[in-house]
C-alpha cells in the first residue's frame, strides 16, 4: 500500500516523488472530509485539559511527551493555542516534522505506515465513536474494514502495522485522544480527523 495514486516511486525523480505524495495527501484529506462531518464544535473543556497535560508533560520531559513535541516540530516551545497544541500533538507521529528522538528503528516503523493505513484506521475508529476500542488490533480491524481504502494485510504486514500503531497510541494518549485503557475519548473523536489533515498539510474544517 504505497502513498501514491498511480504506480509507485520506482524510477521517479525526487521532485516527482514529492508531487505524487502531495497529490496523494490532498486526495486523502478529501476522502477524510467526505467521510466524516466537518465543522463540529470542539469539546472545549476536554481540549483545555488535554493541552494543560501536554504542557506539563513536555515541561517535565516525561514519556512520551518530549518525543511528541519533537515530532510535531515544536522545538521546545509548546503552542499557546489549545487547539493547535492538541492537533499537532496527535498528528506529530503521523507527520514526523522533525526527528522524534524515538530512534531509527521506531521511526522506520512509523514511516512504513502509508496514507491508507492511517486513513482506514482513523475512519473506522472515529465512526465507531467515543468509547470504542482503540487497541492496536482494533485499529488494524478498522483499517481492514474501511471501504475507502484497500486495507487488507498479510500476517507480516499486520504485525508491522500494529507495532507502529502502538507507538502512535502512546502519543494519542498523551494528546487525550485515547484513554489509558485504549478507548477513544470524546476529544479523540473530534481531534483525530483534524490531526490527520494537519499532518497532510491541510485544515480539516477549511
Summarize the amount of helix as a percent range.
Answer: 55-70%
Query: Spans with pLDDT under 50 lasting ≥5 residues?
Result: 1-12
- The count of strands amounts to 0
Mean pLDDT: 91
Number of spatially distinct domains: 1
- What percent of residues are in strands? under 5%
Query: Which radius of gyration do the C-alpha atoms yield?
Result: 16 Å
Q: Shape, please? A: globular
Major sheet: none
Using brief descriptors, characterize the structure shown.
single chain, 206 residues, mainly alpha, 62% helix, 0% strand, globular, disordered N terminus
Structural features, described:
The protein is mainly alpha-helical and 206 residues long. The chain has one domain (14-199). It has 9 helices and no strands. The chain has helices spanning 14-35, 44-60, 65-72, 82-95, 104-112, 115-128, 136-145, 155-174, 186-199. Helix 1 (14-35) runs parallel beside helix 6 (115-128) and helix 6 (115-128) runs antiparallel to helix 9 (186-199). The radius of gyration is 16 Å and the shape is globular. Mean pLDDT is 91; it is low at 1-12.
Amino acid at each position: 500500500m504505497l502513498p501514491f495514486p498511480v504506480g509507485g516511486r520506482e524510477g521517479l525523480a525526487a521532485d516527482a516523488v514529492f508531487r505524487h505524495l502531495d497529490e496523494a495527501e490532498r486526495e486523502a484529506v478529501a476522502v477524510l472530509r467526505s467521510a466524516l462531518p466537518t465543522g463540529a464544535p470542539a469539546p472545549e473543556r476536554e481540549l483545555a485539559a488535554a493541552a494543560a497535560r501536554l504542557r506539563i508533560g513536555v515541561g517535565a520531559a516525561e514519556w512520551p511527551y518530549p518525543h511528541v513535541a519533537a515530532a510535531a516540530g515544536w522545538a521546545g516551545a509548546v503552542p499557546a493555542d489549545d487547539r493547535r497544541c492538541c492537533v499537532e500533538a496527535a498528528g506529530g507521529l503521523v507527520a514526523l516534522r522533525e526527528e522524534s528522538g524515538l530512534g531509527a528503528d521506531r521511526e522506520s516503523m512509523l514511516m512504513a505506515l502509508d496514507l491508507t493505513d492511517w486513513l482506514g484506521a482513523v475512519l473506522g475508529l472515529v465512526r465507531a465513536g467515543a468509547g470504542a476500542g482503540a487497541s492496536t488490533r482494533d485499529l488494524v480491524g478498522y483499517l481492514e474494514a474501511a471501504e475507502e481504502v484497500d486495507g487488507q494485510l498479510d500476517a507480516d504486514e499486520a504485525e508491522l502495522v500494529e507495532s507502529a500503531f502502538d507507538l502512535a497510541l502512546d502519543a494519542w494518549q498523551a494528546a487525550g485522544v485515547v484513554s489509558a485503557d485504549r478507548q477513544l475519548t470524546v476529544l479523540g473523536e473530534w481531534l483525530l480527523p483534524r490531526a490527520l489533515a494537519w499532518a497532510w498539510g491541510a485544515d480539516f474544517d477549511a
